[in-house]
From TrEMBL:
PROSITE patterns: MOAA_NIFB_PQQE, RADICAL_SAM. GO terms for biological process: Mo-molybdopterin cofactor biosynthetic process. Keywords: 4Fe-4S, Iron, Iron-sulfur, Metal-binding, Molybdenum cofactor biosynthesis, S-adenosyl-L-methionine. It holds the Pfam family Radical_SAM. Its cofactor is [4Fe-4S] cluster. Pathway: Cofactor biosynthesis; molybdopterin biosynthesis. InterPro entries: Aldolase_TIM, Elp3/MiaA/NifB-like_rSAM, MoaA_NifB_PqqE_Fe-S-bd_CS, MoCo_biosynth_MoaA/MoaC, rSAM, rSAM_sf. CDD domains: Radical_SAM. Residues 26-249 form the Radical SAM core domain. Transmembrane segments: none annotated. It comes from Actinidia rufa. This is Cofactor of nitrate reductase and xanthine dehydrogenase 2. GO terms for molecular function: 4 iron, 4 sulfur cluster binding; cyclic pyranopterin monophosphate synthase activity; GTP 3',8'-cyclase activity; metal ion binding.
Length: 318
């Protein structure tokens, strides 16, 4: 699974660059940030990510091989993408994750190789992953309380996630981004505790609004909107200051934390089948360019999203 993030193209940008034009949508946004979902498998069963009974996984032959991942990634990078994020499922459970990172990190033009992980097996793999070129990390953690963690993820492992966060800090990742999905009645009372956590450590907490996906039993009563989160933090931390966001950020950044409004889009394009049918790179670029041009200015409202057929987050790639 591939998805992209964008920045506005400068008025001074060259207009005759046909390669980069593949990544420019109809709103003039250049998509330089690529997300690649490496696997649907996960070692947790988070309630907001998948149904309690789990999901039917895609059979292995239908998943991209390592060589196919590198081929397509190289196509994107050679066309202007300079940041790749590896997601899942849980990317660290893919057996060839270190080799994938190593091969991706050597792509000419790639500036950042990032990963979003639940942190369960990360601590022991991280030294090798860093050697292989992994340059940025997002670690998911929705609560600082072990019992709540076990309830939300349907698994044990809170201490292993904390261990992974500390290991990332010790290895020099700065900042270590921590993704926290906020749900009313579950962890909204911990917002300021998460912010306090960033005071002494190079941690950037990204508070994410609870979004509707198939099987996660979304309910508007569980939603804590960004404005309410910010209001709670401002009342406790009076010195909060807004920071300028990167053009591709889907987050609002502050000196005491980071509030991320999770973007949502149901449309997808299949690159695996054309690749396996022998389509050449120019034709693949045409397919990608057409998909980018179909992007809308923004996602639908929360209630429209809840009514839209989509897939569980575990299939999409978080």
């Amino acid at each position: 699974m591939y998805s992209t993030s964008s920045e506005k193209v400068s008025e001074d940008a060259p207009k005759d660059n046909s390669v980069s034009d593949m990544l420019v949508d109809t709103f003039g946004r250049l998509h330089t940030y690529l997300r690649i979902s490496l696997t649907e498998r996960c070692n947790l069963r988070c309630q907001y990510c998948m149904p309690a009974e789990g999901v039917e996984l895609t059979h292995s032959p239908h998943l991209l091989s390592q060589n196919e991942i590198i081929h397509l990634a190289n196509l994107f990078v050679s066309s202007g993408v300079d940041k790749i994020r590896l997601t899942g499922g849980e990317p660290t459970i893919r057996k060839d994750i270190e080799e994938i990172c190593l091969r991706l990190s050597t792509l000419k033009g790639l500036k950042t190789l990032a990963m979003t992980t639940n942190g369960i097996t990360l601590a022991r793999k991280l030294p090798k992953l860093k050697e292989s070129g992994l340059s940025a990390l997002n670690i998911s953690l929705d609560t600082l309380i072990p019992a709540k963690f076990e309830f939300m993820t349907r698994r044990k492992g809170h201490e292993r996630v904390i261990e992974s966060i500390n290991a990332a800090i010790d290895l020099g990742y700065n900042p270590v981004k921590v993704n926290c999905v906020v749900m009313r009645g579950f962890n909204d009372d911990e917002i300021c505790d998460f912010v306090e956590w960033t005071r002494e450590k190079p941690i950037n907490v990204r508070f994410i609004e609870f979004m509707p996906f198939d099987g996660n039993v979304w309910n508007v009563k569980k939603l804590v909107p960004y404005s309410e989160m910010l209001d709670r933090v401002v009342k406790r931390f009076t010195g909060l200051k807004r920071i300028k966001d990167h053009p591709t950020d889907t987050a609002k950044n502050f000196t005491d934390g980071n509030f991320k409004v999770c973007l949502f889009g149901p449309s997808e394009v299949n690159l695996r089948d054309p690749l396996r049918c022998g389509v050449d790179d120019n034709e693949l670029k045409e397919i990608i360019g057409a998909a980018v041009k179909r992007k809308t200015a923004s996602h639908a409202g929360m209630f429209d999203i809840a009514k839209t057929p989509n897939r569980p987050m575990i299939h999409i790639g978080g």
